[in-house]
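Q: Give me a protein?
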Amino acid sequence: MSGKFTPLAGVTIVAMEQAVAAPMCTRVLADFGARVIKVENPKGGDFARDYDDVVNGPGGLAAHFVWCNRGKESITLNTKSPGGIDILHRLLDRADAFVSNLAPGATARLGLTAADLAQRHPGVIPVEIDGYGPGGPISHKRAYDLLVQAESGSCAVTGYPGMPAKPGPAMADFTTGLYAAISILALLFGRGNRQAGVAAPSVELSLFDVMTDVMGYALTYTQHSGIDQQPLGVGSPAVAPYGAFPTRDDQTVVLGTTNDREWQRVAREIINRPDLAADPRFATNSGRCAHRDILDEAIGAWCARHDLVDIQKVADEAGIGNSRYNVPSEVVRHPQLTARDRWRSISTPKGDIQALRPPPVISGFDQPMGAVPGLGEHTEAILREIGVTPEQLAQLRADGAIGPAYA
């Protein structure tokens, strides 16, 4: 089906991006068919390239970089040189959006703020991702995923009381990247409504604002109750019973209830405790949360006497949500992914690898899932495309405006 319908065909994104947040934004757009030109420093490029070397390694590619950068073209530009910044502006002349997540103040020093672009490239949508947003007492600080998760309270609701933890996935980076992609799509959709002669709207996104939005339930609860809910490990302070329980065969089952009817089925049809079902302390979710230790003990004792497969069979028959606790090596081999053909082969500079298909399944469209680019792999091709002659190319290289020839 690829080629029949490509939602973002003809859309070009220029990105000066590092690590996860901005690269995830542009990867999502590339998966929908946008052309993404990734501008990298000739001296090493995106620093996520060097996080590790496990992909087709040792001496391979970094897992973070492979995850966030398929389907892009890499050009090396020294944007501190006159030749490099000139090439960047020539790329922006042809772009629909400019995405960046540089250090605080970097776009201003390069003359690439939203106001600058509105003057020189009024049709380009500027998207700047930073840590804490402008105008606040910590706006100047560098911000990485862990730092923002701690600042936003995310770590305080993860782990166990007295033992806070960072949520494993890069939630601040990942969700900010998705918000950025959504913002670009919305503004592309609304381009036809833009008043003639008016520059494209700009987008500012901070990891902190996104994570405080993600923390919406916890912040709303505390705002109106005055209570800081304590983390519950593999559980939730919002509902009970809901958690992870060891089984007789040394597995871990996760069982969850979301309403009073489900609790009655757990008590009567699964753990065979009609006394708990009739106990007025557990009649409502609030009561069950207040006495979750009693319910967890009862469910845990029942699970410890049964194997995982039997627990899940009984839970499924009772209409109770359940899952198996898996570690990443088990998820890689998960039969649900295999049965639904969720893996695709993609190219990298170190050979082909298997990567998960993007989550949206869209009729009539197969996401292109292009190759992971080598550092500066497309420099010469892109420069030729914008009219740079071989002689000019050689001069740019001699001046240090671009990196060495891609090997």
Summary: The chain has two domains: 12-216+338-398, 242-324.
